[in-house]
Amino acid sequence: MEAISVFFLRPVPSSSFPLLSPNNPQIIPKVIPRRTLILRRTVRLSLSHGITNNAPEPAPEAAPAPAPAPLFSSWTPPRPLWRGLSALILAGQVAHRALAGRIHRRNTLQQLERVGPRSIGVCLLTAAFVGMAFTIQFVREFTRLGLHRSVGGVLALALSRELSPVVTSVVTAGRVGSAFAAELGTMQVSEQTDTLRVLGAHPVDYLVTPRVIACCLALPVLTLLCFSVGLASSAFLADAVFGVSINIILESARRALRPWDIISAMIKSQVFGAIIAIISCAWGVTTHGGAKGVGESTTSAVVISLVGIFIADFALSYCFFQGAATVSATSMWKAFFPKADIIHPSPSFTKWVVTDDDKHGNSKPEIP
């Protein structure tokens, strides 16, 4: 221990540490003149207080007042409004391109098969039960009043003018219209319509026009089939349950029906088919928001299609079977078939007579 302590307490020569030598110039303090210190202190104070020798900057010029915004720049139209406008624009494009001959035939045939043959089963089943339901109501009341021979005529008029086109269109809107909206909505969300444009195919020609043409061609045929099945099921039920002969039902229907009743049903079904196809396609191509948007567009397309069908049915029924429309229908029939007589019901509705037209185009039935 003594040796170690003696070793540490022994004086060390300065030559062992040259930096600690008094002859080293690095440890000799420099003498800074007082004038230099004052100058440095002045510069520091001027920098800390923002005092510079530069000239003051000019005041910034006032910014020009912003231009007033347009009147409707911040207004966003409601979604149903611009969707309705898009449906009208789409209908115009379809009509223009169809008249110009820009029709994709292969897609049209595929959609025609989809709307027509694949929808026959559900349409005929619905028409049969609707006809039987109305038969139950009509036969009971007419039999109680002693007018069972007029049941067939009433059923035929109801089925041809209203029930067949409306029921067929409602079933088609639920089955085909929803499929159109969902399919086109999925294509719009996944940007497949933009891919068609890149490939040089117009989406209206390739997707919309074939569907509209298919609905307009298939629905009249479906309506005629539904009318036949509905009347047949009504006659069968009246004979089996209420004892009214099938021959009486069919004879009454033959006397009550006019060619214009069938023609008006065909026209209605064509208009309804165009409404279903255009609304479903318009709602599909305006879809956004992913899978949720596709579901909302599909539901909305079916609802709006049904509302449009009922509104169009009222308008067409008023035009076809009220007031001046009867005159125009009679004049149209006489224009195509000038030598044919027009059958009109007598006021008692139990006897049908054939009369000549007066100068205004209306027939005056004889009262038996």
Task: Describe the fold and architecture.
The chain has a domain at 103-335. It is built from twelve helices and two strands, in the order H-H-H-H-H-H-H-H-H-H-H-H-E-E. It has helices at 2-9, 34-48, 79-99, 105-115, 120-144, 151-189, 192-198, 203-241, 246-256, 259-285, 290-321, 324-336; strands at 342-345, 352-355. Strand 1 (342-345) and strand 2 (352-355) form a beta hairpin. Helix 4 packs parallel to helix 8 and helix 6 (151-189) packs parallel to helix 10. Belongs to the MlaE permease family. InterPro entries: ABC_MlaE_roteobac, Permease_MalE.
Can you tell me the overall shape? elongated
Structural class: mainly alpha
Number of strands: 2
Q: How are the strands of the largest sheet arranged? A: 1-2
Summary, kept brief:
It is a multi-pass membrane protein. By secondary structure, the chain is mainly α.
What does the secondary structure layout of this molecule look like, with pairings?
Layout: H1 2-9, H2 34-48, H3 79-99, H4 105-115, H5 120-144, H6 151-189, H7 192-198, H8 203-241, H9 246-256, H10 259-285, H11 290-321, H12 324-336, E1 342-345, E2 352-355
Antiparallel strand pairs: 1-2
